[in-house]
Every structure is written in C-alpha cells, then in structure tokens.
Design a protein that fits this description.
The protein is of the alpha+beta class and 201 residues long. The protein has a domain of 107 residues: 2-Layer Sandwich (hypothetical protein PF0899 fold), CATH 3.30.2320. It is 76% helix and 11% strand. It contains 5 helices and 4 strands, in the order H-H-E-H-H-E-E-E-H. Strands 2-1-3-4 form a 4-stranded mixed β-sheet. A hairpin with a 4-residue loop joins strand 3 and strand 4. Helix 1 packs antiparallel against helix 5 and helix 2 packs across helix 3. The longest helix has 97 residues. The chain is rod-shaped and about 165 Å long. The chain starts with a helix and ends with a helix. The relative contact order is 0.10. The mean pLDDT is 78.
C-alpha cells in the first residue's frame, strides 16, 4: 500500500510540475508577446516623433530663410530710399548754388520772354528766394520790354532757397522751376539707374 501511495504522490507531483511548467511557459509567452508589442509601439512612437521633429526643423529652416530674404529686401529698400533722399538733397543744393544771382536772373528773363508769348496777356508773377530778389529785379528791368515789365510782379517766396516760379494770371498756370522741383526732376531721372545698380548688387 505504501508503494501505491508513493506512486500516487509521484504522479500528483509530476502532474503538478508539468502543469506549473506549462503555466510558466504560457506566462513567459504572454510576457514575450507583450514585450514585443511594447517595443514595436515604442519604435512607432519614436518614428512618429522623429518625423515630426524633421517637419518642424524643415519649417524652421524655411521660416528662417524667408525671414532672411525679407530682411535683405528691407535693407535694400531702405538703402535705395536713403540714396534717393541723398541724391535729391545733393541735386537741390547744386540747383540752389548754381541757379542763383545773375544766372538765375537770366533764366527768369528768358523764361518770361519765352512763356509769355504762349499766354494771352495778363499779369506775370515771379516768385524767387529773398536772397535773389534784387539781382532778378535788376535783370528783369534791363532785359524785358516795356509791355512785359509793366505786367511782371516780383515777390519773394518764404521757404524757397533757389530757383523760381512763374505764375500767369490770365491762364492760372504756374511754372515751377524751384530748387525743390528741379531736384525732384533730376533725382527722378537718376532713380531708375540707381534702382538698376541696387538690383545688380
């Protein structure tokens, strides 16, 4: 009977060990499957994070390049504006210096003689800088005929530094040969060339 009991115990023990080994193998397989799924999920998450980082990096590079292009464009526009302002100032200073005194007086007289023939009579108003008033007055009195002298009125224009303006009353036409107008005209002629130089650089 002892042998039968021992055999029963051995069989129970063997079945328990097999069952435990089987359960252990199942748990191990489940653990391996879960670990594999976790590793795969981590790889997928890592791949998505890397793609997102690459997209963000590309967007930052693109935005940085666009910002640099905009900054370069702003610098060129600012430079162009400063050069045009400087050019205009130089042209204005040259006109004020060169077209004054006797040379201005001769220009005013020639302007009145030429433009008055196109107008239908009426008074002529000459506007000049205060500093040029005397020279222009003397030239007009010497140069203009009696009819033009009688219709011509000379006045200083506050703020004008050089050049002159002619206003014909009959037609309400104003001819502007002031330093400001001539400087604008000169700088407009040079500005397209200046723009070409800036673009070329």
């Amino acid at each position: 009977m002892a042998d039968e009991l021992q055999a029963l115990l051995d069989r129970i023990h063997e079945e328990g060990v097999k069952k435990a080994e089987s359960e252990a193998a199942r748990i191990l397989d489940e653990a391996r499957a879960k670990a594999g799924a976790l590793v795969e999920a981590a790889r997928e998450e890592s791949r998505r994070a890397l793609e997102a980082a690459q997209r963000d990096s590309a967007a930052l590079v693109s935005k940085g390049e666009e910002t640099l292009r905009q900054a370069a464009r702003d610098v060129l526009l600012s430079l162009r504006e400063q050069l045009q302002d400087r050019l205009r100032d130089v042209a204005k200073a040259c006109v004020a210096r060169e077209v004054s005194g006797q040379s201005l007086a001769v220009l005013v007289g020639a302007g009145i003689e030429r433009l008055a023939s196109a107008e239908d009579g009426g008074d002529i108003h000459v506007l000049v800088a205060e500093k040029d008033r005397e020279a222009v007055s003397q030239c007009l009195m010497a140069r203009l005929g009696e009819d033009l002298r009688a219709r011509t009125y000379l006045s200083p224009l506050p703020g004008m530094e050089g050049g002159f303006k002619l206003r014909f009353e009959a037609s309400s036409v104003m001819y502007d040969f002031s330093d400001e107008a001539l400087a604008d005209a000169l700088s407009a002629l040079v500005s397209p060339r200046l723009a070409e130089l800036i673009k070329a650089s």
